[in-house]
Design brief:
Elements: E1 3-5, E2 10-12, E3 15-22, H1 26-35, E4 43-44, E5 47-51, H2 55-60, E6 64-65, H3 68-78
Parallel strand pairs: 1-6
Antiparallel strand pairs: 1-3, 2-3, 3-5, 4-5
């Protein structure tokens, strides 16, 4: 099981965030997130939002560090990308 995380560079709600994704399936992503103690409410369309204070913990749990651009490339390549404003989002 491999999941990926980008650096916490996305601002929101007074903090910085990372995106946790899978290049295989949402089932893989949900399983990893559950094992890492990431609540399901953090899932948004095609990724989990991870606050910066949990970044190192999620990496220690096995997430592979990649760039934000790579996160998008992985999602698109796997057919898992669900952009905002699209049907089925």
């Amino acid at each position: 099981m491999t999941v990926y995380i980008d650096p916490p560079t996305w601002p929101g709600h007074g903090r910085m965030w990372s995106h946790l994704v899978s290049d295989t399936s949402f089932d893989e992503l949900h399983t990893f997130a559950e094992r890492a103690g990431v609540p399901r409410r953090a899932f948004e369309r095609d990724h989990y939002d991870i606050p910066s204070h949990r970044y190192a913990e999620v990496v220690a749990a096995g997430a592979v560090e990649v760039s934000s651009r790579e996160v998008v490339r992985l999602l698109v390549g796997a057919g898992l990308r669900r952009p905002k404003g699209r049907a089925g989002s």
